[in-house]
Design brief:
Length: 378
């Protein structure tokens, strides 16, 4: 009965927070951690706590394999500015640890909005593990054949490289994709033929489809001999872009941009329109990957209560060994009770199922709601 009440309570709370998230969308983009800060005085202890809080949150976004020397240097700069990334500090305990050290234990909200300064400081290469991205932009030529628009592909590639990705290719560089029929199927709106590819040539496919609309416009102009008419071309180019996970076929982002070119030549007007549309698309594409990266690494909260600290440590090690889990961070621990942030793309119930399959401990679910789960370990 108690367990049912707890589940109902958590469901109600989850619904309330979901509604609050829709009304106040920024509320959903703060990660709360409990940390300890030490310093010569209260202010320095609070600064240390802020740095520790940001360091914990950053740890949930970065795979240890990406921590090359240059990234470590960049991260040190992030930590030095940590107070600028903190939304709220709630001091839980404070006082002199000894004659020379002041100690603060605080609950700190770190701003993890995709557009926050902190998230901009963490490059997308770290959050997405530098995926292989293939860019293909298609349109029909004068004969009706579907061809690649290399100007648009080059524009999108350059923006992604500028954003920090290093494995960016256009379809011309991947022999299997240059004339792939499934690209033409996507261009024609027949996505049913693309159910995900298992050949591992890419992690993400950026597929763009161009359409153009040209109009002849007469512009009056005056000379001594009287009014003359000059014919110019007005071309509108519309670019639709889908960002697709290559191995699953799932669309992770889609948008439309357009550009208008006006010249006295149809080809020049069309090229100008394409460049304008592709430039706008490049900005939107970088933003799409940034937001997808932030979403991809959201943590699942686990609250573990064990019969002993030894059993708690055992389950922590088993949790870290699971294939469904990328990282486990202990946000708070008191004896045999711990609050964890688990980085995974799996829902809590699936993580628990896998954990039970490898653990010799008894694992009971006390409550589960959304991305939060309470477990009792015996």
């Amino acid at each position: 009965m108690i367990a049912k009440i707890a589940i109902l309570r958590n469901l109600v709370l989850g619904l309330i927070f979901a509604v609050m998230g829709m009304i106040y969308p920024n509320v959903a983009h703060a990660q709360e951690v409990t940390v300890v800060g030490m310093g010569a005085d209260r202010d320095s202890a609070l600064r240390d706590a802020s740095r520790n809080a940001v360091e914990q949150v950053v740890g949930t976004f970065i795979d240890s394999q990406t921590l090359m020397a240059d990234l470590v240097i960049k991260l040190d700069g992030v930590y030095k500015k940590s107070q600028g990334f903190v939304r709220k500090v709630t001091v839980l305990e404070e006082g002199q640890a000894d004659a020379a050290t002041y100690r603060v234990r605080a609950r700190i909200d770190v701003d993890t909005d995709p557009n926050a300064k902190l998230m901009d400081s963490l490059t997308m290469i770290m959050r997405l593990n530098d995926p292989r991205i293939v860019v293909a932009v298609l349109e029909k030529d004068a004969t009706g054949q579907v061809v690649h628009n290399e100007v648009a592909e080059s524009t999108l590639n350059s923006k992604l490289l500028e954003a920090g990705f290093s494995h960016v290719l256009d379809a011309a560089q991947v022999a299997d994709l240059r004339d792939a029929q499934f690209l033409r199927n996507i261009y024609g709106g027949r996505r049913g033929n693309f159910q995900g590819k298992a050949d591992h040539v890419a992690d993400y496919l950026v597929i763009g489809s161009f359409t153009r609309d040209a109009n002849n416009v007469s512009i009056p102009r005056y000379k001594e001999s009287g009014m003359l008419k000059t014919s110019i071309m007005n071309v509108k180019a519309v670019l639709k872009v889908d960002v697709i996970q290559y191995n699953s076929g799932n669309i992770v982002g889609t948008f439309v941009t357009e550009g208008i070119g006006i010249e006295n030549n149809t080809a020049r007007a069309g090229d100008k329109a394409v460049i304008l549309a592709a430039g706008q698309a490049a900005e939107r594409l970088a933003e799409t990957f940034k937001k997808h990266g932030a979403k991809a690494v959201q943590g699942v909260e686990f609250i573990l209560t064990a019969g002993s600290e030894a059993k708690l440590q055992q389950v922590l090690q088993e949790l870290r060994s699971l294939g469904a889990v990328d990282n486990v961070y202990v946000r708070e621990q008191t004896g045999a009770r711990a609050v964890l942030s688990v980085e995974s793309h799996q829902k809590p119930h699936e993580i628990v199922r896998q954990l039970r399959s490898v653990s010799s401990c008894g694992i009971a679910i006390e409550s589960i709601a959304g991305d939060s789960c309470q477990l009792r370990i015996t």
